[in-house]
Amino acid sequence: MRTTNVLVLIATHNRQASLERCLTALSASLSDCEFVVSVSNSGGAVSIPSTFGAAVTITKAPSNSFWAESMELASKNLSSASRFTHVLWLNDDVELFPDSVKNLISLMSSSEADVLVGQTVSSSGAPSYGGFVRRSKIKPLHFDSVLAGDELIRADTFNGNIVLLGSKALESIGPFLKGYKHYLADIAYGLEATQKGLRVLVAPGALGVCEPNLKQNPALDRTVPRSERIRVLNTAPGLPIRQQWRFSIRYGGILGLVYFFATYARFFWNLAFFKKPHH
């Protein structure tokens, strides 16, 4: 029987305490597996508890790197696809429930899932991150949340907070998509998997706590000064045009054109008619 060998990808930026907490919970949950944790750090120096030893490698990312860039850098430690049976994406601010990752790996082994998505909840217990389904055929790039239940539930794509990739996903797509800077990389991976006929499923129940990021895209945020909205438009945290175009056309087809132009129409509408409110 092949040993379960897991590569864990984590991107971090100046969150030492949450990273340590995340790694400690992860280590306990992977006690029966061989694992390597690849951390891409775009912030200041981070230290890893000595109990982890060589199981954790830290790659220094440029300080201006965002989530997707850092995760792609961390994934380059996957020197051989045959070395790992699974790849786990994990956000450093997720507070894992006991045995959640262990149960996720066991569930993948006993199910037909190629990609397993773990749902997180806020501290109040409300769902925060997880899977999505396409809203309709005429709106292929608009999504509705999938709420984890008592059984596996099909999804079209997902947030990348807790995601387990199996061998078929690694062979046909790889550990992470290239060419994305920040957001959309996780959504794109899920849609890529769905397009290739891979089974994307949401695991039962919640796997951990992760507070939702309620900040709006700064390019569309009406409370941000106009000059700043213009400045960030074509940057990683904004609406980088080449990335939006590639995502829209690849996963939306002809209807993706509508999504693409509607995105920038919304930007210019907000820019023209909504100024930063005066206090």
Layout of SSEs?
Blueprint: E1 5-12, H1 16-29, E2 34-41, E3 56-60, H2 67-75, E4 86-90, E5 95-96, H3 100-110, E6 115-121, E7 127-129, E8 131-136, E9 139-146, E10 153-154, E11 157-158, E12 162-165, H4 167-172, H5 185-195, E13 200-209, H6 226-232, H7 241-273
Parallel strand pairs: 1-2, 1-4, 2-3, 6-13
Antiparallel strand pairs: 4-12, 5-13, 6-7, 6-12, 8-9, 8-11, 10-13
Characterization of the model:
The protein is of the alpha/beta class and 279 residues long. Helices cover 33% and strands 25% of the residues. It has 7 helices and 13 strands. The chain has helices at 16-29, 67-75, 100-110, 167-172, 185-195, 226-232, 241-273, and strands at residues 5-12, 34-41, 56-60, 86-90, 95-96, 115-121, 127-129, 131-136, 139-146, 153-154, 157-158, 162-165, 200-209. The longest helix has 33 residues, at 241-273. The protein is globular, with a radius of gyration of 19 Å. It starts with a strand and ends in a 6-residue tail after the last helix. The model has no long low-confidence stretch (mean pLDDT 89).
**Apparent shape:** globular
Average pLDDT for all residues: 89
Radius of gyration, rounded? 19 Å
* Helicity range: 25-40%
For the termini, the CA-CA separation is 65 Å
Strand element count: 13
Broad structural category: alpha/beta
Low-pLDDT windows of residues? none
Largest sheet data: 10 strands, mixed
Order of secondary-structure elements: EHEEHEEHEEEEEEEHHEHH
Number of helices: 7
